[in-house]
Each structure stands twice: as structure tokens, then as C-alpha cells.
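### Sample
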Amino acid sequence: MNLLVFDDNEKLNEAGANIIVSLVQTNPRAVLGLATGGTPVGIYEQVVRNYKQGLVSFRNAVSYNLDEYVGLPEDHPESYHTYMRQHLFDHIDLPWANAHLPNGNAADPDAECAAYDEMIERSGQIDLQLLGIGHNGHIGFNEPDTDLVRGTHVVTLAEETLKANARYFDSIDDVPKRAITMGIGSILKAKTILLVIRGADKAEIAKRALTGPITTDVPASLLQTHPRLTVLLDRAAARLL
Ligand code: GLP
């Protein structure tokens, strides 16, 4: 595990963006696994800056997002489709046809999950999977459980996740209760993984995920088994390491 701690969040954003941008510079057909949440916003901003400076083109790249809420219209302000457009896709030349997110409104969600996995398979391996982490150690929307699921699947969100994500909605009752997420197996299949952890409120889970036992109680702890894991942390998140 390659662990990098930053005093300055701008430097962390630059380091994260550099990893994505240099991958696409050397492999223009790279397959990117992308994440949402507050954590990657600054990294996407920096990627967009690099694109606008003419340093990189995404026109041949492909992306797969980790997850999407079930039942939220695609153009809802808090859907992950909207998030990705706002923070990245509207500002770079990645063709919309190459950018994939699970369809949270599919008539048959299980068929949608299987189709999403098949699509990823057809693209070959994900070259770089970007990840944030939930306070309970979830990655994507893979919540702590006795068993974790390998492929893309429908999940019922944990109470803690609903509370954490309520900040984006008018009330907790408006947070969708279910989501479609790539599974732990799909995440671990990526060639390289870039996990980003920010903030004092993530210090405890950072410690458990990175140095604690490997357990399905902390889905992110399974990342310890990945041969090419880079973790970017700000000083506050790294406090207990
Ligand atoms: C969300 C997403 C995750 C994200 C996590 C943390 O619910 N499904 O992909 O990593 O929770 O979010 P944040 O970065 O806002 O703390």
C-alpha cells in the first residue's frame, strides 16, 4: 500500500488528478472507475483544469461509475448522473456514450446489474478505480455485512449512510433507501485503486480500514489485499495512523 499524507488539500487534489491524468496521457483508451461524494470533487476540479490547459484528452477513454440511487430521476439534482455531469463530464471531452453509470430507474434492476457487469467485462479491466469511503467503511455503496457481494447489485442503504447523505436532500426522508452499486469483487478486480480519505471525521474509519483486521464489517478493509493500492489522506484523516 502506498500511503500519502497531505497538509494541504490543494496538493492532495493535484496528486489525485495527476494520477488520473498521467494514466490517460500514457493510455488514452484507459478505463476509469469513478466515484461520487464530497471527497473527489476537488480532484475532478483539478482534472478539468488540466484538460482545459490542453494537457490531456479523454475522447478515447471509458468510465464506469460505482453507483447510483434507485428511483431518483436521472436529472434529479442529487442523482449521481447529475453529479458526474456537473463535476466532470460537462467540462471534459469524454464522450457521453463512453461514460457509464448504473441505471437506477431500470424496470428490472437485477437485469440492469448483470448488464452493467457484462459491459465492464467487455471493456476489459478497469485501469484505475477511484474511491471515497463512508464513515462505516462502505466503498461504493457496499455496506458492512456478514457477506459482501461480488458483482453489481441492489443494496438497501444503512441508516448511517442515509444520515450522512441527508445533507444533500431537504430531509432524511427524501434520501433514496436503495442504490445500485458495483460489488467488492468488481472493485478489487481493478488494476490499480486510488482511495481518498479526507477530514477528522474519517480518521477512525481510516485507521480501521487501513490497519485493522480485514473484515466484511469494514468493507474498505478488503482493499488491504489489493496489490496496487494508493491512499491519499489529508492530515486530519491520517491522525490515528
Ligand atoms: C457515498 C458514496 C460513496 C462515497 C461515500 C463518502 O454515499 N456512495 O461512493 O465514497 O458515500 O462520501 P463523502 O465523500 O461525501 O464523504
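The chain has a mean pLDDT of 97. This sample (Glucosamine-6-phosphate deaminase) is used throughout the tutorial notebook.
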